[in-house]
Amino acid sequence: MALMLYTRRELGKIALALPAASLIPFQSKPNSKINGVQIGLNVPYSFGNNVMPADETLRNCVQLGVSAVELRSQPIEAAMGVPVDLLRKASQKADVEALKQPRLSASMDKAEGLRRQWEDAGVRIEIVKYDGIYNMSDEVLDYAFNLAHAVGARAISCEISADGTRRVGEFADKHKLMVGYHGHAETAPEHWEAAFKQARHNGANVDIGHFVAGNNASPVPFITEYHDRITHVHVKDRKKNKGPNVPFGEGDTPIKEVLQLLRDKKWDIQATIEFEYPVPPGSDRMAEIAKSVQYCKTALA
To answer: Helices 108-120 and 54-64: crossing angle, nearest 10°?
Structure first.
């Protein structure tokens, strides 16, 4: 039998076509912790598909060299057997109700298995993001926190809501797991401060791009004052006055200053890239995310 030889390019194509669990023999484990700051990625949101299978999501993370993530619940729950069609619509009250029974009958063993697969590949699931959390029943809220524990997360995240943070915070205190409430341009410091007063484990997911766009001010003072309540920051670049998302370094967001603050203060706050700016002609998402990761690494060097 003739020996078949492959070029480096052909081997790369083969590696990308393999399941995530088979990727390790082809490349080393990723490491995106730079000078003490964990650079993470909001996935699979940043890849443009919230229900992207867990294997494909993991493969992309390894390819990008990212070693920790904020992972939306959909890929985890799909791997646990929850129907993907239901997970596509996981935010409205009726949709959350339809998900109740499939969620409560899903096996946590599969979630723990997914955790092992990701950690074996060198990627930690540090935060789990939930849609529709304020419409969840008490049973499903317990399930959500238990699922986060099963995959090894140190926090969950969700959108901020003045009407819901007290109740979610009660469950966070019960399960002793932080909740990072995500803010948009409309979110001001007082919204998070109100949530902080409601529960010990209520925290903030500060999107520094949205913060600058909506408050026309640097997020550094807020991060400095409340660093012990901040689960992670979303890293993106936006213009002031609710301006657009732009490639890193082209907007008004003090990305370098925030990253270097985390580095110098040695705070355990994941710097989570959330890819949202338009992909330039001739490029693609993976290439642009790779540029964003490199920008952060350079800022922390």
So the answer is: 20
